[in-house]
TrEMBL record:
Stretches that traverse the bilayer: none
Residue intervals of the NOA1/YqeH-like C-terminal domain: 409-509
Cell membrane as UniProt keyword: no
SUPFAM superfamilies according to UniProt: P-loop containing nucleoside triphosphate hydrolases (SSF52540)
Statement: the UniProt record of this protein carries the keyword Coiled coil: yes
InterPro entries noted in UniProt: GTP-bd (IPR006073), Mito_transl_resp_regulator (IPR052807), NOA1/YqeH-like_C (IPR048422), P-loop_NTPase (IPR027417)
Listed GO MF terms: GTP binding
Coiled-coil residue spans: 253-280
G domain boundaries: 197-247
CDD domains: YqeH
Segments for region (Disordered): 316-336
Upper lineage: Eukaryota, Metazoa, Chordata, Craniata, Vertebrata
Name of the featured protein: NOA1 protein
Bias (Basic and acidic residues) ranges: 324-336
């Protein structure tokens, strides 16, 4: 491929509307890169054309779901973040930190880093912790959300985040909208418009998705989501490179009243009263998650075109060829007036904090898409005797070495990842033969790929069962998923679990979903597997019809 960069051209001073990086054509491996020819073409069309453009990486993410590798080491992430938090407070109040964690990743590996970011010279007003991705987890019993919230609170306490520093804990799904209206109400009620808000979180925690959802909610000034392009959403780690922001609406008494009226009115609707388009959208969300909520706007009619991440006419270039149709003349993009922004409080998105010891760091973007759950996780339960082995793709392995009785192993991972059960005597052969191949799916790329992939390394685990209906622990195979182990009361199990070298294997006690083994169908004859069972989805802020 011929070089598309031109080091002689200075950077633009204009941010990419997808990721916030400064647009430039000097270095193809650095953030904000646009091929030189396109860049010069945009410059010749005037400032408005450049303001509407996205960099090569955002184009690839939005249109091909692939990311271009960038040289942005973790130290650089931390530097950008620390510098942002150490800015002098603009309104006499330090910023509120909205920390987004992925509940499936508990104990959150980045949470312990928060107190260091909140060192004495950071005038932060506190941390509001948002437990995201609750829509992926099936309810294993009544009150499972209350238990999840307690698990998040315990993780915060262990990380040294407690007392006045911890403003609140909210459970949401940024993707399906569940809990987001409640989060907006909480922010408007307590934080009002006192100072700026920073979204922090590990890569893949759903932080940029939450930024996008808040951008379309009553939290954002009503004109802003038309003026500011939405943050790039992608599973590839470290997508948000510089600080994207939107202006926070001032929650006056009148606005809060009008918002409450809208929420009350929406809560009286049943699913039957929704329009055909709304029903279709709701059904799509129900397929994606167990918990669904609608995020609306009180102060402006939602424009359906807002669902499109990027307008192709505003894009700076095509990956493979120039667009066949001549691009339309760039319209002048609407800008905020000086009065609209001079006293504005802003909500900033920040670079995702890279998780150390994470299996996702070893994977290609195609593999990451298979490993990160994008739909409601359907638990897969197996009954194993001593001498049996369970593989989760080629990323994790659990050997049941010793025990008196069979035990239940419930896998919670992306539905796209295969689970394979074999015997201890066959296990090594299965891995050698199938790692890198379609049978175990991830990693992919055959022998060549496996030559460079770290080997699986073992860790011995001893567990004592607490009963046939309640799991004793989760064995978390880095970020590939986890296996909840359920065993007879007082039954001692000796297990050996494996993850790729350099990735973290965690024994999570107590388990996240202790009663998960009950969510299963009948045993499949002649196999150790049970039929899977997918619990129904729940929609908040809609009245249920008939029996509840």
């Amino acid at each position: 491929v011929p070089s598309m960069s031109d080091p002689s051209v200075p950077p633009s001073g204009v941010s990419c509307s997808g990721c916030g990086a400064e647009l430039q054509c000097a270095d193809g491996g650095a953030p904000g890169f646009v091929p030189a020819e396109k860049y010069r073409g945009l410059l010749s069309e005037g400032p408005a054309a450049l303001r509407g453009a996205v960099c090569q990486r955002c184009w690839a993410l939005a249109h091909h779901g692939s990311a271009l590798r960038l040289r942005l080491p973790p130290a650089e992430h931390r530097r950008v973040l620390s510098a942002a938090l150490r800015r002098p407070p603009r309104h006499g109040r330090g910023p509120l930190l909205l920390y987004v964690l992925d509940v499936t990743e508990l104990p959150d590996p980045v949470l312990p880093q928060l107190p260091a970011l909140l060192s004495p010279d950071v005038p932060a007003a506190g941390v509001l912790v948002v437990g995201n991705k609750v829509d992926l987890l099936p309810a294993d019993c009544r009150g499972h959300l209350g238990r999840l919230r307690q698990r998040v609170a315990a993780a915060c306490a262990r990380a040294g985040l407690r007392g006045a520093a911890l403003v609140d804990i909210r459970l949401v799904s940024a993707k399906t909208g569940y809990g987001v209206e409640g989060l907006v109400s909480r922010l408007q009620r307590s934080w009002k418009c006192a100072g700026d808000v920073y979204l922090l979180g590990a890569t893949n925690s759903g932080k940029s998705t939450l930024f996008n959802t808040l951008l379309r909610s009553d939290y954002c000034k009503s004109r802003a989501h038309d003026i500011i392009d939405r943050a790039t959403v992608s599973p590839w780690p470290g997508t948000t490179l510089n600080l994207l922001k939107f202006p926070i609406i001032n929650p006056t008494c009148d606005r809060i009243f009008r918002r409450q009226e809208r929420l009350k009115e929406e809560a009286t609707k049943t699913e039957d009263q929704l329009s055909t388009e709304e029903k279709k959208y709701l059904n799509q969300l129900k397929k994606q998650g167990y918990l669904v909520g609608e995020v609306g706007r009180t102060f402006q009619q939602q424009d359906s075109s807002a669902e499109i991440d990027f307008d192709p006419d505003l894009l700076s270039y095509s990956m493979d060829e120039d667009p066949r149709d001549p691009p339309k003349k760039h319209e002048e993009r609407e800008e905020f007036t000086h009065n609209e922004v001079k006293d504005a409080r802003w909500c900033f998105d920040t670079p995702g904090i890279v998780k150390e010891d994470c299996v996702l760091n070893l994977l290609t973007e195609k593999e990451v898409k298979l490993v990160l759950p994008s739909h409601a996780i359907v638990p897969r339960t197996f009954i194993l005797k001593p001498g049996m082995v369970l593989f989760l793709a080629a990323l994790g392995r659990i050997d049941y070495l010793e025990g008196e009785k069979p035990a239940w192993f419930s896998v919670l991972a992306s539905n796209l990842l295969p689970v394979h059960v074999t015997t201890l005597s066959n296990a090594d052969t299965v891995y050698e033969k199938h790692a890198g191949q379609e049978f175990l799916k991830v990693p992919m790329g055959g022998e060549e790929r496996m030559k460079e992939f770290p080997p699986l390394v073992p860790q011995d685990i001893t567990l004592k069962g607490i009963g046939t209906t309640e799991a004793v622990a989760d064995i978390k195979l880095s970020s590939a998923g986890w296996v909840a182990v359920t065993a007879h009361a007082e039954e001692e199990l000796v297990l050996r679990a494996y993850t790729p070298k350099g990735t973290a294997l965690v024994v999570r006690e107590p388990p996240l979903l202790p009663y998960i083994s009950a969510i299963r169908g009948a045993r499949i004859p002649g196999t150790p597997a049970y039929r899977t069972k997918k619990p129904p989805s729940f929609v908040e802020n809609l009245r249920t019809t008939g029996s509840t």
